[in-house]
Amino acid sequence: MQDPLNHHPLDNNLLERMCRRIARHTDGMRQETPVPRVGIGIARQHSTPVTTVYEPMICVVLQGAKQVLIGDRVLHYGTGSCFVASLELPATGCVIEATRDEPYVVASLSLDREALTDLLAELPPAPPSEPAPGFAVEPVTTGLLEAWDHLLALLDTPEDIPFLAPSREREVLYRLLQGGHGPMLRQIGREDSRLSQVRRAIGWIRRHFDQTLRTETLAAIAGMSVPSFHRHFKAATAMSPLQYQKTLRLQAARRLLTTSTDAARTAYAVGYESASQFSREYARLFGAPPARDAERLRAAAQEGDAL
C-alpha cells in the first residue's frame, strides 16, 4: 500500500492490525472511548455531507477516504493521511471511499493544548517559520503510525489507561511535531503566535455568534491591525470572519429547527435581521430551504437515523 501524498510505502501489517483493533471496539462512530480524548470510527458506506464545527483535533485515516470542505478549501484524505485542525473550524465532510468489506476506518485525538505546550517547553526551539494555516493534511510516517498504535492498544487493556495514556498521547504529539504538521502545532502552542491570536478572536465569535460582528473589535481581541487580522484570519481558516460567523449561525439554526417549525423566529434567534436572507443562505449551505430541511431532519430523527 502506498502513501497517497508522498508515495512512501506504508506498513500493511501495522495498518491492518490497527483496523482490526478498532473493529473489536466499534462498528460505528465513537467520539469517546475509555482512552481520554480518543475517538474511533468505522463506516461501511459513503455518507451524505454533514456540517459541523471541528474542535482542535488530530485524525488519522487507516482505510478508506473522506472529503472535507472548510471555507473555500476542499481536502481529500485517505489511507495513511493525517488531518490536523488546530482551531475550531466550521466544516462539511463526508466519507467518499468505504465498502462493507473495506470500510472507512479512522482514529481521532482531541488536541490538548496544555499537553502540547508542556511538550514544546522541553524541546529545542525551532527556527522561525512563516504563519501556518489552522488546518492541514499530511502523510503519516512509520513513527507516527506506531505511536498511534501504542495509544490505541490501550483499548484492549483498560486497566493500563490511567498509567500509560498520558505518555502515549505525548508520543503521538511528539511524532506530529517532527513531521509536516510541526510548524502549525508549534504556533498553536505559543500564546504570541498568529494562530493563537486568531484563536482568541474565534473564541469571541463563537460566544457571540448571534450578535453584530465588528471587525475592529475582533482585531483588537487578536492584537492586530484590521488589515492584518483579515489576512491572518483568512489564511488560518480559509474564510472571512463574517463567513465564519454566518456558518455558526446557520448551524445553530439547524439545531433549533429540529424542534421548531417557525423558520422566521429561528432566523431572528440566531441573529439574522432578514428572514428571506436567512432562507437563501440556509439553502445554500444545507441544500434545502429551512422548512423542508427541518421536516427531513425531524423525520430522520423519528426513524432513529444519525444525521
Low-confidence stretches: 1-7
- What is the number of beta strands? 10
- Which descriptor suits the 3D outline? globular
The percentage helix is 40-55%
What number is the mean pLDDT? 92
Evaluate the radius of gyration.
Answer: 20 Å
Distance between the termini: 32 Å
Strand fraction equals 15-25%
Global structural class: alpha+beta
Order of helices and strands: HEEEEEEEEEHEHHHHHHHHHH
**Quaternary form:** single chain
Number of helices: 12
Structural write-up:
By secondary structure, the chain is of the alpha+beta class. It is 47% helix and 19% strand. It has twelve helices and ten strands. It has helices spanning 12-25, 113-122, 142-152, 161-178, 182-188, 194-207, 215-222, 226-237, 241-257, 263-269, 275-286, 290-303, and strands spanning 29-30, 38-43, 50-54, 57-63, 65-70, 73-78, 81-85, 89-97, 104-110, 135-139. The strands form two sheets. It has a six-stranded antiparallel beta sheet with strand order 1-2-9-4-7-10, with helices on one face. The protein has a four-stranded antiparallel beta sheet with strand order 3-8-5-6. Strand 1 and strand 2 form a beta hairpin. The longest helix is centred in the middle third of the chain and has 18 residues, at 161-178. 35% of the residues are buried.
